[in-house]
Structures are given as C-alpha cells and as structure tokens.
Amino acid sequence: RINKPFREFGAIFRLEGVLVDITGLQQRVWKRVADEFDFKEPVIEDMRRAAVTRPDIVIRELFFTTNDVILVRKVVDAYRRVLREEFDDWVKEQGIVVEDSPADSSNPSDEKGS
Asked: pTM for the full model?
C-alpha cells in the first residue's frame, strides 16, 4: 500500500458530449424544462456548455434563473425526468435495443410461490 498508494483508486468519467454529440438532445430537454418553469428559452450556444455541466450550475449560471435552493432542486428533478423521457424517445428513434440487466429483470415479488 505504501509503495503503490493509488492502486485501489479509480475514476469515473462522463462521456456524453465526447463520443456522441448530445447538444440537440440537451436543447430539447432544457426547452421543455424552461417551458414548464416559465424560464427563458435556451439557445444552442448555451447548450454546448450545458451538455457537460451539472444541471444545478446550468440553472444558476447559464439561465441566470435563481439561487433558491428549493426551486433549483425542483428544476433539477424536472430536468432529470425530462432527460429520461427524451433519451428513451431518442433510443427508440435510433432503433437501439436495450436489454435489461439481470439485476433489473429480477424482481422478488415476481418469483413463483410468493
């Protein structure tokens, strides 16, 4: 451990925007969220930064919306919900087949004898 202090550490990277350009997807998501909360509509230049920035920072800095932590939390939750919906629609449009992992498909209440 002393000779190799970083042997047990790892890193997690977010690759959206690196391997696939998701600017258009981000713009659709943020437009829906902006409509829902009556914020100004985002422009494509803002979306390039928003695609690689945490949603709470986007709300505060890019849209100059609010510093109210409760409202920011509500907007972030809405952003995540809309992102899931838009991403699922995008996956269907692209014809991508997503299979459930074994952990997702095993539901204890579905087992026989319950």
From this structure: 0.66
